[in-house]
Amino acid sequence: MSHTALIPSHRKPRQSASKSALRAGVAGGVLSTIAVAGAAAPAQAEPVTQTIEMPTITAGLSTTVAASAEATQQVALDLETQAQEDAAATTAAKAAKKAKAEAVRKAEAKKKAEAAAKAKAEAAERASRTAERTTLSAPSGSSSSGSSSSASTASAPVSSSATGSAASVVSFVQMQVGDAYVPGGTGPNSWDCSGLVQAAFRTVGVDLPRVSQSQSTAGTQVGLGNLQPGDILYWGSAGSAYHVGIYVGGGQFVGAQNSSTGVVQRPLDYDMPTGAVRIL
After folding, report:
1. Can you say whether the dihedral through the CA atoms of 83, 87, 89, 90 is positive or negative?
2. Domain map of the chain by residue range?
3. In whole angstroms, what is the distance from residue 179 CA to residue 255 CA?
4. DSSP secondary-structure letter at 189?
5. Bridge-partner residues for 278, per DSSP?
6. How far from each other are the two terminal CA atoms of the chain, in whole angstroms?
7. What is the CATH number of domain 155-278?
8. How far is CA 122 from CA 110, 119, 236, in A?
């Protein structure tokens, strides 16, 4: 017996043909897979040339853009409207300035015309007063009849019923015709309406109140159809009259009317009074 006969052999036993074939098939498949993968690798490295399409803008974004455009348009419209308003305001201001200047010019022209008319009226009143005073102071034919002639001349503008104190009152106010009208005036050459009436009655010893309101209730109320020379005429209501004068007969009165006319003698229908009171 060989000395090695009992030593186990370290050689692997031979595998069967079927196992070898199986392993060869598996190995071949793996190698085939690797080969296919290797062949496919270069194709994947080719650059991408396909265009990527971006998603469509949503409806909400479209609405926002439309609202922004509308707001911009509104701002532009507001600016245009403001510009038109500013232009209109400028035009109106120029027109107003021109109208004001024209109104001032017309007012000045009217004032000058009124001043000229006033001066002409005053000149005419002075001439009239001079003529009347010349007539009243004209000398009589004889000294014996001087007094009666003077009385007759003084009473000429007055109705025949004017006698005594009434005739004196009438004579006094007629002598002041042509004097100036001045608010608060009490003579001797300028008067207001109640100042003239008060002074006329003072010549016959009657002390009247100073203002027209009180003078309109100082005597007995009489109707305008029953007037007598020397009656006080008033305009406005009794107790609150704003103007007074003296009835001188013949449908006429004397009064200090205003600063334009001064003291004048006029028919009643020139400025019809409201009522009258009788003192004498």
Report:
1. positive
2. 67-139, 155-278
3. 10
4. S
5. 220
6. 203
7. 3.90.1720.10
8. 18, 5, 27
Supply angle C-alpha 27, 30, 32, rounded to 5. 110
CA distance 72 to 103: 47
CA neighbor of 229 nearest in space, from 165, 154, 136: 165
Query: What are the backbone dihedrals phi and psi of residue 249, each rounded to the nearest 5 degrees, phi first?
Result: 95, 165
Q: Residue 141 and residue 144: Cα distance in Å, rounded?
A: 9
Show the tokens assigned to 53.
């399409």
Question: In sequence order, which residues have a C-beta less than 8 Å from that of residue 255 and are 6 or more positions away?
Answer: 193, 196, 233, 243, 244, 245, 246, 263, 264, 266
Q: Which two tokens stand for residue 18?
A: 């079927």
- Model pTM score: 0.46
Contact 244, 197 (CB under 8 A): yes
Between CA 214 and CA 111 the distance in angstroms is 35
Q: What is the separation of C-alpha 276 from the centre of its chain, rounded to a whole number of angstroms? A: 42
Task: Taking residues 196-204, report their average pLDDT.
Answer: 97
Q: What is the mean pLDDT of residues 3-12?
A: 55
Angle CA 85–89–90, to nearest 5: 120
pLDDT tens, residue by residue, 99-108: 888 888 888 7
Smallest CA-to-CA distance from 234 within 208, 203, 202 is with 208
What are the structure tokens assigned to 34, written together? Answer: 């690797």
User: Residues 231, 255: contact at Cβ < 8 Å?
Assistant: no
The alpha carbon of residue 243 and the mean position of all alpha carbons in its chain are separated, in whole angstroms, by 33
d(CA 219, CA 241): 14
Q: Tokens in use for 40?
A: 């496919």
